Amino acid sequence: MFKKLTFSLLVVLLIGIFAVNTFAASGSVTVLGVWTGGEAEAFKKMIAPFEAETGIKVEFTGTRDLPAVLTTQVESGNPPDVSALPNPGQMVEFAKAGKLVDLSTFMDMEVLQSDYSPTWLDLGTYKGKFCGVFISADLKSLVWYNPKEFAAAGYTVPTTWEEMIALSDKMVADGKTPWAIGFECGAASGWAGTDWIEDIMLRTVEPEVYDLWVSHGISWLDERVQRAFELFGQIALNEKYVYGGSNAILTINFGDSPDALFTTPPNAYMHRQATFIKSFILDHFPNLVPGEDFDFFPFPPIDPEYGIPALGAADLFAMFNDTPEARAFMEYIVSPEAQEIWVGELGKLSANKRVNPAAYPDDLTRKAAKILSEASTFRFDGSDLMPSAVGAGSFWTGVLDYVSGVPLKNVLMTIEASALDAYRK
Amino acid sequence: MRTKKITPWLYITPAAFLLFFFLVYPSINTVYISFFNYNSEKFVGIKNYLYCFSNEIMLNSFRNNTLWVVLFVPLTVSLGLIIAVLVDRVKYESIVKSIIFMPMAISFVGAGVIWKFVYAYRPASAAQTGILNALRSFFQLEPLPWLIIRPWLNNFCLIIVGVWIWTGFCMVILSASYKGIPRELLEAARVDGATEFKIFWKIILPLMKPTIAVVATTMTINVLKVFDIVYVMTNGNFNTEVIANRMYKEMFIFRNYGRASAIAVILLVLIIPMIIINIQRFREQEAIR
Amino acid sequence: MKKLISIFSGIPLHLVIITIALIWILPSVGLLITSFRSSADVATSGWWTVLQHPFNFTCYTLENYREVIIRIGIGKAFWNTLLITIPATIIPILIASFAAYAFAWMDFPGRRLLFVILVGLLVVPLQMTMIPILRVFNKLGLAGTFPGIWFAHTGYGLPLIIYLLYNFISGLPSELFDSCSIDGATPFQIFKKLVIPLSLPALASVTIFQFLWVWNDLLVALVYLGGTPDVAPLTVRISALVGSYGQDWELLTAAAFVSMILPLSLFLGLQRYFVKGILAGSVKG
After folding, report:
1. C-contacting residues of B 232-251, CB under 8 Å?
2. With contact defined as beta carbons under 8 Å apart, do B60 and B241 qualify?
3. How do residues C221-275 score in pLDDT, each as one tens digit?
4. pLDDT digit string (tens) for A175-223?
5. How many CB atoms neighbour CB A14 within 10 A?
């Protein structure tokens, strides 16, 4: 028994040692990303022409555990050549620690400046160093609805906050429930709620005040922040407005939430969510036609002087090791050729202005792209820019607590306490 | 047993070397950086520890971990023991054992999905997709949002998931020990007219005491490190936070190495009572050798 | 008559066992049924609704399993998992049984202190060890290699395995060791001829658990081995099935069963080592 065991162990060990794979052989670039599932497939399609043309092999790892893997690899001195970063906040942290390569040292900045709007370039710059490039964006300021049901009930798309509230009241009076809201998302529960607050903030304060709020230049106890929460509460805390009330908001997964729009009769009529929710709707209801069975309108303005601003998030790449292969890779992914494949596969919005709108999979996506490019103001998802202890911590939890009935004052005091601690570091 | 002086070391060294490299050395490193700031550049003394004992969420985690110890450990150990002893008497033993063991073989992601279908909540007017709420609506009761009713119900719900997963572990270890009890002893007691209940208390339990202590130690340590279940199901929202999940967040999400390390060191300190209990057993065993 | 009583007195026993088993298996049955349903059905009705007309086969689909098998490319990932799991199970158990034997039956200075350290190490969270260890791995060229991950799993698994085996081996009757020593057997002979065969139930149980942990591990593999298809084990590939916003999570239901087959069969296979009275006859009264 003993001998057999030892022998078989030896055999396996030998196989293993010869099957050894080291990271990053020459002529390759290691890339770490959050993309999995269909997104990983799209990513592979995007890099296929690059691999074919340059002969450089892209060693891609897609994992939702990216924070843990990237932190460990960077701290142990063996980062991937290139990595997608969850948000610009993380980019700033890595840039601050001196881990990122300044891309302006080899990239043609003039082309970039003509291809990208200044917003994207500014977001990728830390203290004069250009560290991050954006390959695509998602527009968040959208309210999804079912046009057929709207028409049947004689509802019209609201163009102001007051109209939207009036419409909601009308629906309630008709014995219907206006809103479908769901914030559950496992370990990331709450992010969908922070989007609401950010969208409302953008519509009630100057963009500069929004930026101040993001950088903790104004306190969470500021009355303008408080107002944003209260306006959100006007909808979310009204049990008659929300399908299933606050319990549903807290327990229903954000991806399942829009399902309520497509039951007969509909359980709800409106759903505020980013462009990517389209894939969830089509996954649950494969027979629906985008633009006919479901559509969206821009999240309406609240204080008219701020117009219809756009809130968005974007996919961001940064470079950790300066190798010729990594340089080639970075130059490829900022190009319109690469991004046309990427946005065409996923229905994301491109960051590069030269991307041909024909690349988008449908009219709905083109419409979103138009809203994004015509928006009076564009701001990045605020929670993604805050230190993660707030932006992926107390802010998420705070919105959930507020919905669950914790007094607003306490919610904001808790977030403020964590912000005082987090921004100081 | 008499051996040459060198012999024990031949047996111990490979294990000691690996343990030192993979666990002792990183732990020393952890203790060291727990006295530094978030990126380990500035010495901050015991500030990270003060934070751990004053921050509201941390205090909440201590309370929840206590709740886990009080409920999870007795439940897993006693259920594991009862099942191990009972199934020994039936012919379909290995089927039942596989069923109890199965949750251990399911990955945490899988387990998260499974329990989603137990605790899922849908508004009262809709068809329920969670079995508990389906049962409630069958009895004309309002559906409950199990995972958000704080502070007790949601924690209980999470602990039940833990018990479901880990009872299999306790059962397997306890069963191995139960099988080791000489059958002659039990037969002799039966011949003497002892009831099964009495045999369990007077013979089986005392003989299995060391193993029960081992399993209880393992489960207690498990509770201190409990992380996956909470991370997947609530991520500590609604007062369900636990120490290890806080550590994971501070380490990888908030990237505050100092604080994460301080929390890890606190875990090490919390284990001291278990070490004392174990060292007493160690001495007892030494004495009878 | 007596037989009749014993049958009836057995009923409560069966009832208790079967009830527990049913409660335990219920959530998994839900998962199994869900794995054969389309995501549209899953979102709108509970899994138990199919039980109302279980033979209406239109409500089942093999789509989830098909997708999982195509996308993972089972072959390579399965092979990688085995290549990681088998050595990462055998090595620590071998090393641990030597150490546990020494702890239980040999005298050496510092024995007690080492035992205290061992119990303390049980609680070390492995997330905290990764950065310092990966640093050393990078220097030694072990990062991204199979031997690297074998050692890592060995190191992380050792404390519990030694602890559990120590408990079992120390419980063996001391008379056995005395009589063997008198017969002039060396410690290694005693280990091989006596300790190992008598500890089979304990060895079988730690084998199962170490195997399971390595098999289901995701983080250690991602950090020490990486997630490229050449080296990625099943868990890494499975977790990458689901989109970054959680799209297609229903694939996890099928994946959970695909990845459970081997550990469960190992458990069943090792059942024969959980034999009654392994010590019977070895101790002569």
Report:
1. 244, 247-248, 251
2. yes
3. 988 998 888 888 988 888 888 877 777 788 888 888 888 888 989 988 888 877 6
4. 999 999 999 988 889 999 999 999 999 999 999 999 999 999 999 999 9
5. 10
Cβ under 8 Å to C: B residues 58-87: 79, 83, 86-87
Tokens of A185: 């998302």
Its CATH architecture, for the domain C68-273, is Orthogonal Bundle (1.10)
A71 touches chain B (CB under 8 A): yes
- C-beta atoms of A251 and B148 within 8 A: yes
- The CATH number of residue A416's host domain is 3.40.190.10
Query: Between vectors from CA A92 to CA A87 and to CA A95, what angle results, nearest 5°?
Result: 125
Q: Which of residues 172-211 of B touch C (CB under 8 A)?
A: 172-173, 175-177, 179-184, 210-211
What is chain C's percent helix, strand, coil content, to nearest 5?
75, 0, 25
- Cβ of B11 and C268 within 8 Å? no
Answer whether A356's CB lies under 8 Å from A339's CB: no
Q: Is the CA virtual torsion C85, C90, C92, C96 positive or negative?
A: positive
CATH topology for the B55-105+158-288 domain: MetI-like fold (1.10.3720)
Cβ pair C31, C64 in contact under 8 A: no
> Is the Cβ of B239 closer than 8 Å to some Cβ of chain A?
no
Report pTM.
Answer: 0.91
Contact (CB, 8 A) for B221 and B274? yes
Kindly report the nearest CA distance between residue C229 and chain B, in angstroms.
Answer: 20
Give the start-to-end residue ranges of the domains of chain C: 2-61, 68-273
